[in-house]
Amino acid sequence: MLSSLLIKSGKLAIYSITDLEKLTGIKAHTIRIWEKRFNIIHPKRTQTNIRYYDDQDLKKITSIALLNQKGYKISSISNMPDHQVEDLVAHLTDVAFFNADSLDALTLSIIQLDQDKFNHIIERHIKQHGFDHTFDELFMPLLDKLHEMWLAGSIRKAHEEFAMQLIKRRIIHQIILLEDKPKTAGVRCIMAMLGYENQQMSRFFVEYQLARRGIACLYMSNDSDIRDIVEAVQAFKASYVFSFANEESTLPIVIQMVQALKRSPDPVTPVFIGYLITEISQTCPDCVCIQNFDHLQSFLSELV
């Protein structure tokens, strides 16, 4: 379907008008009006006469959308040279943004792969509101937005990796800062990666949620087998084992681990997160299957 297609050819990305709509928040009908009335961008055409836009068009529409949201008229923007538009956008993203404005500014920095701008916006938000607020009100909506855009094919792999790496570093840094936080007595967890699961962002996300509540957590990598995990549970005196389950090949390993944990002398509860929780809940009804972010928050709050 062309409306959500991202075509990659070398360094060139080709976007449909619906891709621009999803990325910028500007309706496709409005973008077409901007093209015809104000001559802002010029769509190209494939050999089969299909309209498309490139990275430069995406950057320009994103910049114009941001300026328009801040009160600049399209008629005025259309008469500005490109360097003036860039200067205005740089000034706007230099000040403190909140909520939707922050998401717009971060989206622009991701599209432009501008690490300095991305970090600057995040730093401002953390200084204004603290990391917890930034995590809940900025990182989570941004990750949701990126996920939707990636599924729709509206961003390239480079954009996703750029944002994921920078967010991951922030979360890891915060986890380190929380290492000295007093731990909740009696609640200890193992984070176990099973099979070929490799949800590093999700892992750090859950680790941060545990750390901010003072819950001790030990990480077990994919190199660990079931026996290693069981031994770690006993040595660490863990009450819960968190695992991710998105790959079909993980299901047999899940069942093996659950059966092995049942034989543990001390009670331990497996907790699963991922696309396969429906199958796991049917096969292992005694496990906890986390359905979404709110469910995870609720579940963790009950532990402390």
Describe the structure.
The protein has 304 residues and is of the alpha/beta class. It has a domain at 188-303: Cobalamin-binding domain (Rossmann fold), CATH 3.40.50. 57% of the residues lie in helices and 12% in strands. It has 14 helices and nine strands. The strands form three sheets. The protein has a five-stranded parallel beta sheet with strand order 6-5-7-8-9, sandwiched between helices. α3 (55-69) packs antiparallel against α6, α6 packs antiparallel against α7 (115-129) and α8 runs antiparallel to α9 (157-177). The longest helix has 21 residues, at 131-151.
The succession of helices and strands, N to C, reads EEHHEEHHHHHHHEHEHEHEHEH
Number of helices: 14
The fraction of residues in strands falls at 5-15%
Question: What is the CATH domain class of the domain at 188-303?
Answer: Alpha Beta
* Rg measurement, Å: 23 Å
